[in-house]
Amino acid sequence: MLKKIVKWTVLVIATLVVTLATCSSTIFAAATSKPTPSWGAWDQTTITYKTNTSSSYYKSVWKNAVKRWNKVGVVQLKAAKSGEKADITLTSSKSLSTKSGKLAGYTNYSYLNKGNENEIVSAKSTLNRSLLTKYGYTKNQRTNVATHEIGHALGLSHSSSKSSVMYASDRYASINHQDKVGLEDAYND
Ligand SMILES: [Zn+2]
């Protein structure tokens, strides 16, 4: 008899937790439905890249991040043939210090301003190996940072949504629906 009561109490608590979770996710979805903003776009949707790092570990991190963007289906990132100049260079650095302080990753780009829009002509994304190691980033979290940097190289800006891969300071998020819609907005005009 006593066992039964205990079981029932556990069940009530479990139900309560589920209800709370449903509530907060509804509020969250409503507050963050804006597409990820963009600052520019490439002229074409097939964009070449090369990984310029001697580390096979970071080659694989970049390769996984490239796969994620290709899966979205808006642009196609293709490895540049040897000797061919790549649109985007993906690399890693032992350390990285910038004006904005210590960053997990960084993207430089050049673009042409064409009135209302910016046409990206080259980009280079770098991962900061020492910082990622110092703060114990897992391989998946490093892939999230790599995905964020490629997002900049494709023209996306920061999102205020924590579930977006383009949230400024986060290692946990990957590409979400807002990022997909933001990329579509940038390329399907
Ligand atoms: Zn960023």
Automatic annotation (TrEMBL):
Keywords: Hydrolase, Metal-binding, Metalloprotease, Protease, Signal, Zinc. GO terms for cellular component: extracellular matrix. Residues 38-188 form the Peptidase metallopeptidase domain. GO terms for biological process: collagen catabolic process; extracellular matrix organization; proteolysis. GO terms for molecular function: metalloendopeptidase activity; zinc ion binding. Its cofactor is Zn(2+). Residues 1-29 form the signal peptide. Transmembrane segments: none annotated. Belongs to the peptidase M10A family. PANTHER family: MATRIX METALLOPROTEINASE, MATRIX METALLOPROTEINASE 1, ISOFORM C-RELATED. This is Zn-dependent protease.
